[in-house]
Amino acid sequence: MRTIVSEYFNAMTVFCRSVVTCYFAVALFVLIPSSSASETSSGDFHGAVEAPHPGWFKESFLDFREDIAEASVEGKRLLLYFWQRGCPYCNQLVTDNLADPDIAQTVRAHFDLIAINMWGDREVVRVDGKMFSEKTLAAALGVQFTPTLLFFDERGGVALRLDGYHPPTDFMKALEYVYLRRENEGSFHNFLMTAQGREIRENREVEDFFMQPPYRLNGQTNRGDRPLAVFFERAACSQCDILHRQVMRESLTRQLIKQFDNVLLDAASQASVITPSGKKTTAALWAEELEVNYFPTIVLFDINGREIVRAASAFRTFHIQSLFDYVLTGAYRMQPSLQRYLSTRSEQLMEAGYDVDIWSYDLPISFDGQPVSFEKFQAVTGGISRGG
Predict the structure, then answer these.
(1) What are the tens digits of pLDDT across the range 220-261?
(2) pLDDT value, residue 5
(3) Closest by alpha carbon to 319, among 63, 20, 89, 6?
(4) Residues in contact with 174: Cβ distance below 8 Å, sequence separation at least 6, in sequence order
């Protein structure tokens, strides 16, 4: 079991920017009961799934200069797909997205798709002629979680990058943006905002921990010594509904989020905002500046206003919890590698007898089939470290 968990967690992280050179962070409080691990039955790990690759993926010698040239001759573009063993989001990409007839036809007609194992040892040649192994290339490109998709233009530049799993409708928009060469007309953010057009606001629950305007987010003098979470959403957004109705209804998740100052912004709104850096802007302009390309996107800042990590793809409860925990405990300061942090903590968690289910909405962390309370976390960890 430990081998499977290590292989999975060595790469499953979240979309991060700023202090951490990655796009995904998943972390946990370390739960150590009063009894030693040797006296406690090890917990179980659930949710890892192997992703089968369709036979139409391109077999390549992994010289990307040649791959781009070959694709261009056929009027296609190169698409690199970074994956890893046991990744349930990779499985979802294959079984939900690429199994859809319209999506599969679009990909096959407009792209040469090459799978890259982010822990693999095959030799690859980057577009600049430099040689790497698959895993060193993934590191050089800052690939910290799977799936990560890189769409290349004919000159070898990256036309679009998707960090994390995007459901079929959102994925198809990304495909259209690239194969229609819309990067020459504007950003993917503006493409999405234009494509969504006029929206009808859904009757979505808004939790009581969200701040009310005016949104003055600049500095500890206005917010106290708490980290900041900014939620960018749209009026019509099915994944936003899942976030509110499923992920954030889980008790521990809510308690973790409540340790932050939380702001909910419509990415199309003209609501006034003073950003953590002190800039006066609007919600819409700030979303564009931050290149928010998925809804919902959650951007987490430390108490000094530095962006630490963001969730910009579809995540289950375990991963959302862990994002907040990573920032809240200050673990990012001691362990910039989210992969190592997650692997170590998850193994310690299971050795202490706790079960981890990365794919469950309702019970991501449990003991004897029962959820773990926030109070239990505080009791076994000695409180929360929020130093800046």
Answers:
(1) 545 568 999 999 999 889 999 999 999 999 999 999 999 999
(2) 57
(3) 89
(4) 149, 151, 160, 162, 166, 188
Question: At a CB cut-off of 8 Å and minimum separation 6, what does 332 contact?
Answer: 19, 20, 25, 302, 308, 309, 326
- Location of each CATH 3.40.30.10 domain in the chain: 2-32+204-381, 64-196
Beta-carbon contacts of 299 under 8 Å, excluding residues fewer than 6 positions away, are: 229, 230, 232, 290, 292, 307, 310
Residue 377: name the closest of 388, 386, 387, 366 by CA.
366
Half-sphere exposure of 380 (CA within 13 A, CB side): 17
The residue assigned the tokens 């006034």 is 272
Length of the chain: 388
Q: Look up the pTM and report it.
A: 0.86
pLDDT tens digits for 38-60? 466 889 999 999 999 999 999 99
Quick check: 158 and 150 in contact, CB under 8 A? yes
Q: Which CATH superfamily is domain 2-32+204-381 in?
A: Glutaredoxin (3.40.30.10)
CATH architecture of the region 64-196? 3-Layer(aba) Sandwich (3.40)
Residue 162 parent element (H or E): strand 158-163
Segments of the chain scoring below 50 in pLDDT: 11-38, 221, 380-388
